[in-house]
Amino acid sequence: MQKRKLICALMIATGCWASVPLPDPEEMRIAGSALTKVATAVQGYVRYEMAETVPNDDILRNATKHDPQLMAQLAKFKVRVRASNKSSSVLVCDKEGTRGFLEDSGCTGPLDENLWHDERPKPCEFVIDLEKVCNPPTASSPVSEPPTSLPPQPVSPAPGIPANSAPVTKM
Question: Whole-prediction pTM value?
Answer without folding.
Answer: 0.67
